[in-house]
Amino acid sequence: MKKLRSFKRGAVSIIAVDDPLMEEIALSLRETADELLAGGNLRLVVDMGGVPYIDSPGLETLLDLHALAEDQGGTFCLASPNTLCRDIITATRLDKLVLIHPTVDEACRSFL
Predict the structure, then answer these.
(1) Binning pLDDT at 50, 70 and 90, where does residue 112 land?
(2) Is the distance from CB of 15 to CB of 33 less than 8 angstroms?
(3) Assuming Cys at both sites, which of 2, 47, 84, 106 could form a disulfide with 101, CB separation 3.0 to 4.6 Å?
(4) Is residue 54 over pLDDT 60?
(5) What's this model's pTM, rounded to 2 decimal places?
(6) Angle in degrees, CA 33, 102, 63, rounded to 5
(7) Which domain holds residue 53?
(8) pLDDT class for 3, splitting at 50, 70, 90?
(9) Do 67 and 90 form a contact (C-beta atoms < 8 A)?
(10) Where residue 58 sits, what CATH number does that domain have?
């Protein structure tokens, strides 16, 4: 069962993913982020604490979210990726575009 939930912490919108970030969940993530950004929620954190693995469509979605947030004047970052996901993000050089924080709390504080 796919798990994706969104909630707010002050002015920051958080999307928590608790499943492998593969094609189907990546599409759900994109839709949720689109809705949040369209609604004026321009501070977006994707909590990857529950993501055991990320594949190419997942990486593409994260890249798309970065561009989409930037185009709308917003900011997008990642929080809590496990070692494997962080290694994949680093190997693909996505970490050169998207800020990565060790925790959701630190990601939220980065917007201050």
Answers:
(1) confident
(2) yes
(3) 106
(4) yes
(5) 0.95
(6) 35
(7) 4-109
(8) confident
(9) no
(10) 3.30.750.24
